[in-house]
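Risk register update: the risk that structure generation would not scale has been downgraded. Supporting records follow, first protein first.
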Amino acid sequence: MKPDLGAFPFRDRRYHFSGVGGSGMTPLAILAVSLGAEVTGSDRNFDRGLPLPSFAALRDGGVRLVPQDGSAVTPDLTAFVYSTAVESCNPDFQRATELGVERIRRGSFLAGIAGARRAIAIAGTSGKSTVTAMTAHLLLEAGLDPTFLGGGAAVRLKGAVPPGSLRLGESEWFVVETDESDGSVAEFAPAIAVLTNLSRDHKEIDETARAFESLLEKTRERAVIHCGDPILGRVRCPNSLSRLYVSVEGASTWTEPDLVARSVRLSPSSVRFEVDGTKVSVPFPGALTVENALLAIAAAVAAGVPLERAGAAMATFGGVRRRLESVGAVKGIDVFDDFGHNPVKIGAALEALRPKGSLWVYYQPHGYAPTRFFRDELIEMLRAVMRPKDHLLLAPIYDAGGTTDRSIRSEEIVEALRKVQVDATLAPTREGAAREIAERARPGDRAVVMGARDDTLPAFAREILAALEEHAGSRTPAPITRPAR
């Protein structure tokens, strides 16, 4: 018997989800159906005829897909749920406004569901999808049977439904990823809050810090905070709230940590460390993997899981799709697919990927406003991280439609990068980019596709693999594990 959802009853309720194909909207719509609601969904990519995996998952989950023309928004709807990609000029949004149908943002809708459970809310500007999936895995391995809803598809999470970002559990525990980009993180009232880090991302740092403070003010039991992140020290925590501080040995901290990752050992395919004498092994590379795993272990400990049990369970974590996901390898050339889209995430991913040979980075900026917001930081990060033998293929900026200012172009980013000696080239077509990588990459090199929002990027990573296979004439099997950030 699932717990009562209180303010969010679903039986005999009708919801329309606009922008339903998004990574956060798809599992939420399926969750609403599983709780007894009737759900319709629309998406501009569905109207374009794109055969995205999310649409098949939605149909299988009981969501009826309809055109995004306002026709599904009717007076008898309980509410209209929309993603941040849906603007006020969207036909669905306009129709809901005309009819006076209640409009609820995706994050607010999710916060309402989470408030009726014993939620563990994961917040931060990097790594939170991985920490959310890790925490769900640890609770599941400890027998706590949580519900899970993340921003990325968890690989091999027992009981997860396609596309992998949702698991329906029978207990009161709900492990959920929050969203600072729309401010809805401030609306969650969880049992346990986890703060992974804080950087300039969708918003300026001070604005995001205030949203994190609102989350902590509403947290009922305990907060897990990464005190090795210098900027999180700005976030004020209520004195009455119990806190569990974590950090990696050697990091500069602003308070005494309760759990420390010591004896850290990094390898090309895994990380190892110790926490209070408990040995931890995670089958994915990168220094950020250590931080993410430590935060997930601390979240599980805060939920009552013994440290030794949580640490041991990390060895069987399966990763998250598009978080340095290994697509395959051809003649010693590895291909990866990654969600990295801001300077911090891109930089961490490239450092984790560092090959003996060259890096071939195909990056598609995920929107005009974010590219303008991050322009200078992106250039500086790439100048610092890219080596002379690495290559950046910069795609045109992803255009999600709407009324945004389109005055910035990838060409000006390429020009600025060349001035600081980064080997950057404009990649006007994917076919040309795949061909260049296939013809020029050598054994020991690694290629990675990076970017957010565009659901066709994973398919392009596999097109690069196919181009390499065609050029080489044979294929080396992909490794079983998939690196995660």
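Supporting record for the second protein:
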Amino acid sequence: MPLVEALAIPAYEQYLEEALEPGIGLTVHVSYRRASSEVDRIAGQSMSHTTVHSRLQKLARSHEPFGSMKERAFRFLVVDGTKVHLQGSLGKDLGQVEMRWAMASLGSSSRFEPVGFWIDTEWSEIRKELEQRLDYNQLEVLFSDGGAGIAESLLHPGMQPQRCQWHGKRDFPYLLYADGFKKAEQHSLVEKLQSIPVMALTQSDMEKLRPEDRPVVEQLVEKTQQGFEQLLQALDPQRYPRTRTYIENLMVPVTTFLRHWLDNGEVIALTTNVIESAFSRVNNRIKRVGRRWSEEGLLNWLKVTFYKIFKPELWSTLWNGEQDFAKIKLTSLQISWRWSNAIT
């Protein structure tokens, strides 16, 4: 039929792509079943949750959000990971693996945006992919919680690591416990760490700095160095092997934001909390709603979250701006009618 062909209506499909948009969009926040029932409640009709799932997979496979971005001058990179539960065919439990992600920013006044998602992938392999996507040598600062293998795999010469200040304070008691010291025995050492000037700074403190504050910041860096050295003296390597190694690896990267301000006069993040908060909805959906995922299904769902949560302007383009329908022009109209003599 000419009209069907002109509108590019696909054959043998009950639902057009546009009809799936509300259900697929809701799956970012709720389960496939709940998304289907909610669309039915609001619109009075919907499709099954299995249809929503299969069409989301089809949509994700036909779109790749992470192409080459080398023309964009990204300066900052933040990486993190979280455990996810995978399942295989017929619901076979595959256990927990690490889901990892990276976000990049053009500068201190620009927001971070995702540049990749990975499931059960080594940081060294992630580095190779990022080098293909980004102008990697232009990255200046790597933000992370200091997880194993991150700095070794992702730093390049000239790139500075910024360890999250909040994670540094939070993880310290866990390391003491790992060395055999319970909470009651940790108090004096925890107080020493918290008394180090850099551990008491906040983002708002940094944003208040002015060029004339440079002597104050230089003095702050010096006192911070002294504070860490005093803490190391209190951490006997025989009694606190894990904790001492942790502080030795923390003391320089946790102060990068101060040295960056001294060198560039630019305020950068001293924790990754604000950056990671963008992923709170993603983590909640993965761990509290979906709970177990196939690797392909999770990656496809993550692609949809990229468009829906992190790039909402592209979500509208995805549904409204890519359709290439032929324009229909009405050139003539013919009407016919006849009287019916039938008696009812």
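The chain has a mean pLDDT of 87. On this basis the risk owner (M.S.) recommends closing the item.
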